[in-house]
Amino acid sequence: MCGIFGWIQWQEELSNQDVLCARRATDSMVHRGPDASGEWCEGGVYMGHRRLSVIDLSDNAIQPFHSDDDRYVLTFNGEIYNYLELREELGREGYRFQSQSDTEVLLKALIAWDTRALNRLDGMFAGAFHDRKTARHVLFRDPLGQKPLYYCSDDRGLIYASEVRAFQELSDRTWRIDREAFRRYLVNAYYVADTSPFQGVRKLLPGMLIESVDGTVRSERWWDSIPGQDTIKVDAIEAAEEFERLFERSCSITMRSDVPVGVFLSGGVDSSMVLDSCHRLVPDIKSFSVSMEDADYDEGSKAREVAKHVGVKRHTSIMMDQEALLASFDGLMHKMDEPQADPGFVNVYYLTQQSRPEITVALTGDGADELFGGYIPFVGVPFESVFHAVPDSLIALARYGVTRLLPGSDGYVGPQFRALAYLQAFPAARSARASVWLSTLPADELENLMPLAEPGFFDPTRTDGAFRISNEYHEVSSGMSSVQRLLYYYQKVFLPEFVCHHTDRAAMMHSLEARSPFLSVPMIEFANRLPNRFKVSRMQLKVLLKHVLKQRQFPDPIVRQRKQGFTFPIARWLKQSMRPMVDALSDIEEITDGEVSLKELNRMIDQHMDGRRSYYRIIYNLIVFRAWRKRNPGLTFA
């Protein structure tokens, strides 16, 4: 796990001042790699690297890594889990190795098989590969976006980095806040797909590569997996057996490390399965969980029960009270390079901070919900066609009735919250429905909150505007079933920039590497070939995973538990310890350059505080953005 930065000038060589800026940009990510730094510069090309030592702790593995003949140069962030198998294969082809690192294996795989090598990798990674002879430069990112990579390509050159903060170190560039991307941030609570806070800076999409030669840049998809494509015919016994085989392999190679490894345990189905499999392979594995002082959000007792059932001897439960929350929030906001308003970000930040003295690598359950159908919207899929046929006026009436008959709740996804979130997707273009289900507010409230947006920008029946990206993914998913379309959206959009983003950033802020066995490539491809009935059936979620957990003789309360997000009682604590943050939003019109209406926001805050309606998502979105803007006072809106 590391941080990379690169800069290519098309026409000019990099000056001494440019190199100093590039060095500062690389070092701005020291938290991603505190153990070593390296750089290589030649003419108009700079490649910088910060290293967190995980595999082969010697200096032999320091990056940028050069080929034996010095023609090729590699920097990358992440881990190649199957590097031992690839090393053996390359050895049979005559390649020799000077280190024990996965970095050298990746470099020689790229030399041997060019970008076809990417299809042989199992891991999480984002990197750059340079050919000094041809001046060809290739950027690449892993299949489902576990590792980040931002880039800016224009007529002057190509700049890229693991974190967007690095771009601010370039003194000859002026970065401005992208208005349209900001509006989408408020809709989604994160910067979706290839968007970023900065105008002109984009994220390399998962499973994509960029190749540049002499100022010509082209992109290419090197990997894809689509739910429902090439569906396999299996019964329950065969499906469970194949899952167990793949998952054991995945856990085994994901634990490869020369530093201490542990498991983050929530007590839910996914992390329980990870801990159980890892404990079978490594009986002295450590596990860590977060406990809450609010009983309805506390997963500590459940996690302790799972650890006891599995037989883990060293389980640590860490209490997160409101004091710890405020300290973690302040620490997170101080280090956050891109606004991301998942409350669970704070939990992961706190968990990694507290566990870091004992481990350097942590395994998580990320990806299981997106692969096997674990989210609440999957329950509503069977009723989608019914509600789609209901007249708009009746939907509006239903929304009104929900707000009057069902009280607002400070609990996790209460009845009013669930009902309104579901109803806001009607009417909506079928292609946008997944995105609208997950949006922070219905279209009419978004329009009132952001009056500067063009008329109709938030209209979910349009194929452009706020939900343009969702519609773009629909072009691929148009022939899928409703369950498959929702899986596809979660995998391609939500997982990379909501789930993986906060896991990567929170862990890296404490120089800890987080890995997920569910996101092994063979596991992803197996899940996407499974029939729907092994994922969602008769309003049951994650059918196969729960079946496997039951076969492993886990207690019924663990197997049948309701989905509980890894978060804190944010709706409640906004009225308590976080109330000063809410009050500070009085300057939101200035902070957002007029994008957000204070009058409309105050209406939402008032309703949230008196319990009529839970508006925690949009309130927290703006709290996070305000904190980020205060840390970056020099940035202005474009």
How does this structure look, described?
The protein has 638 residues and is an alpha+beta fold. It contains 26 helices and 17 strands. The chain has a six-stranded antiparallel sheet with strand order 2-3-1-9-8-10, covered by helices on one side. A six-stranded antiparallel sheet has the order 4-5-6-7-11-12, with helices on one face. It has a five-stranded parallel sheet with strand order 15-14-13-16-17, with helices on both faces. The chain starts with a strand and ends in a 7-residue tail after the last helix.
Helical residue percent?
A: 40-55%
Shape by Cα distribution: globular
Number of helices: 26
Q: State Rg.
A: 24 Å
- Report strand %: 5-15%
How would you sum up the major sheet?
6 strands, antiparallel
Give the distance, in angstroms, between the N- and C-terminal Cα atoms.
Answer: 34 Å
Q: Uncertain spans, ≥5 residues at pLDDT below 50?
A: none
Whole-number average pLDDT? 94
Oligomer: single chain
Major sheet: arrangement of strands: 2-3-1-9-8-10
The strand count comes to 17
Question: Which class do the helix and strand fractions yield?
Answer: alpha+beta
